[in-house]
Specification:
Distance between the termini: 35 Å
Number of helices: 14
Mean pLDDT: 80
Order of helices and strands: EHEHEEHEHEHEHEHEHEHEHEHEHEHEHE
Largest sheet: 16 strands, mixed
Low-confidence stretches: 1-21, 25-54
Shape: globular
Number of strands: 16
Structural class: alpha/beta
Helix content: 25-40%
Strand order of the largest sheet: 1-3-4-2-5-6-7-8-9-10-11-12-13-14-15-16
Strand content: 15-25%
Length: 425
Amino acid sequence: MFVNQPLSSCYEKRINPVKNLQLIVENDYQTRLMQKRGLIHTARKGKLNFDKSSCIVTEPSEKSLRLLKTFLPNSRALDLFFYSIDEAETQFLQKYIPRLSHLKKLAIKARVCNEIDDQKFTRMSRSIMKLKQLTNLSVNLVEYSEISSDSITKFFHYLTRIPYLQALSFQIFECYTLNNDAISKIIQDLKKLSLLEGLAVDFKNCYEVDDDSLISLTESFSSFNLLKALKLHLKGCYNVTDHGVQKAGESLSLLQNLNQLEINFDSCFDITEACFIQFGSFLSKLKNLQYLKIAAIDGPQMSNQGLKAFGDTLVGLVNTKILDICLGSWQPGSTMCEEGILNLVEVAASLRGLETLKLHLWALRTFDDDGLLKLLTLLGSMTQLKELMIQFGKCKGITKRGVCNFQNRLKALNSGISFVDIKSN
């Protein structure tokens, strides 16, 4: 339960700091939306809503942010979400984050970042580097940032001063100056993070990222001896072609310690079907992989034969427990339809260790309620399957009645499935 008291009264009562703190700073619209959904109970300015693990600050003033230091000193984990970041939030980060000497996990996410410039981002980066006990760091700047590649390279350089960093996630949106030179500098600093076990890099719509950038980045991963989890998102990096993807696949296939891998090639238009199939064959060499997600919506134009060939490459993933595939295309040349999907699910059914199957399939030329029923025989034989999620995008042949019928019959065939979610939109 959230406690609804003015921030000043909370401060006067000297409430004991919590060890794990989530701070969400929202604007009026977002606050009303959260209130409507029952996530918070008050939306009045100057209020602080909190429980054992979270705080929500509505319309923060400089005073309210300053008073928050009451909750921060002994925090071990801090999750910050800003709908937008302006001068007040930047000063908060700069002043109070360095004081969290015990902090081990820090996540900063900003939805609208048009007011974050190089100066503000550098100030934030310098604050983070003072957290010497930090082991997990996530910085996600989702939309409309005005940050240059120089500031991004400085950010990664500052990270080398955090001695115990084990997991790093970084997301930037539409940084048009992030080129090969900047990627090279980032790589040199990443190599200094010798304890890194998890790495997530998202360069969405960073158009200067090309084959050379991808090749250099994936080749560097071999220097991370402890790396077990990797996430690489290149959505909208349309200068990535077959050459870069092939070389990336070769490099990734050498990372035999990986147990989690997530790759996104959405809207990389110059990747061909043949290259995507070959990329799958490289991934099949990762025998310790337990989780695989691969997305290429509006990337390669997959045919039924190509989808079957790609599925066949995944047979080698004998230890995979979670498989998540996102495919499809709005382009007129795509011919992926029912036959290809059935072939892909048939391969998934052969993976005896698979516990979770997720398929996101977009703009299929033909798939209807009858196609759903044909999936039943394949899925019913997967006795080890616990979760199933299939999302059909723009498949007009699938009806709500067909989805309900499929879900009911599947649960009757396989009672071990605890969660089934089939969507069509």
